[in-house]
Amino acid sequence: MDKIMDLIAQEEKYQNETIRLIPSENFTSENVKKALASDLTNKYAEGYPGKRYYQGNKIVDEIENLAIERGKKLLGVEHLNVQAYSGSPANSAVLMALVEPGEKICGMKLNAGGHLTHGHPKITFSGKFFNSVQYDVDVEGRIDYEKLRELVVAEKPKLIFAGTTAYPWILDWEKFAKVADEVGAWLVADISHIAGLIVGGVHPSPVPYVHIVTSTTHKSLRGPRGAIIGVTKKGLDRDIDLAKKIDRAVFPGLQGGPHINSIAAMAVAFEEASGEDFKKYAEQIVKNAKVLADTLREGGLKVFGTENHLMVVDVGLERGKEVAVELEEAGIIVNANTIPHDMGSPFKPSGIRMGTPAMTTKGYVEADFVALGVKIADIVKR
Ligand SMILES: Cc1ncc(COP(=O)(O)O)c(C=O)c1O
């Protein structure tokens, strides 16, 4: 057998035998995996349904159109692009569509819980080619919306990202919208982490408040790796050509042929996420996260959060990586993470980040997370 097949089998076994608490990970359904592993991976389809640069795309067009229709309905947006290869290319496409190089953009600081693609300075595409200003969180790790307003009014960015990667609180879309509207900025909600919670009805939707929604499809939404870019009614009201601009930025602006197997898998995941079972799943994710956070607190740890699927735990100055390794040795997979106003650095952070989407998929309920929380607190305090 090819060595790679053996390694895949080993990894599958490892994933199923360990406790997966990385909040951006999940276990997809068999049908999502079937779509990903299908012959759709063989097909080239540059362009969009009905306007392809390659022949032989009749069925592929139907697949992409179905993914688009299902996704639009699920999120409640007017237009949906399903071709971005992943979350980072989706955010890059939005920047390419709406901001010129050197113009000002605004996003949350990385160590406050923001994402690299939201303008992290110097080392990223978004921080290198745009003039980035960044907002922070307070001592509890919550966005200070008044300070955000002061920053935005002073700096007048052309585009604001509202969205997070390590933020345990509910996002107040209305407050973001007020700030953005005051200076006429584009408002982009990056719901990569919380998409599953939003469509499951346990986190408010940004759609009425923002111009654009971006999201990965592989986190709490439980689909394949990939991303979507939605244009809202508010977005189209501001610019009737917004959908066209987004589509052109994805192709031919940034990408070539779309990954049709991923798009088919998205269509599967969107259908799965629209059912009653998924609502129950989303509710359970949040219940489980609360129980885990409470148990860790009872165990003597400082926990940031939680109102959503994740929490950040203070494990002592610069101890994040060491604790994550110790947990890995105990079969518990988490990631080291900065805590709000960390005195360490991204390379030597003082926290760990944990979330419940993956283990909730595996059937974990509150009692399982109490037992797990006790075990984690013991390991952290060793
Ligand atoms: C908020 C947010 N946006 C974008 C991304 C980027 O997604 P990808 O890793 O698929 O490029 C992530 C990934 O962690 C994220 O959390």
User: In total, how many domains does the architecture comprise?
Assistant: 2
**Taking all residues together, what is the mean pLDDT?**
97
Instruction: Supply the helix-strand structural class.
Output: alpha/beta
Bound ions, cofactors and other small molecules, one mention each: pyridoxal-5'-phosphate
Broad CATH class of the largest domain: Alpha Beta
The CATH topology assignment of the largest domain is Aspartate Aminotransferase, domain 2
The CATH architecture classification of the largest domain is 3-Layer(aba) Sandwich
Number of strands: 15
Distance between the termini: 43 Å
Any idea what the CATH superfamily of the largest domain is called?
Answer: Type I PLP-dependent aspartate aminotransferase-like (Major domain)
- What does the largest sheet look like? 7 strands, mixed
Globally, the shape reads globular
As a percent range, the share of strand residues is 5-15%
Estimate the helix proportion, in percent.
40-55%
How many helical elements? 15
Please give the order of strands in the largest beta sheet: 4-10-9-8-7-5-6
Cα-atom Rg, whole angstroms? Answer: 21 Å
Order of helices and strands: HEHEEHEHEHEHEHEHEEHHHHEEHEEEHH
**Assembly form of the protein:** single chain
Uncertain residue ranges: none
Pfam family, one: SHMT
EC number: 2.1.2.1
Protein name: Serine hydroxymethyltransferase
Enzyme class: transferase
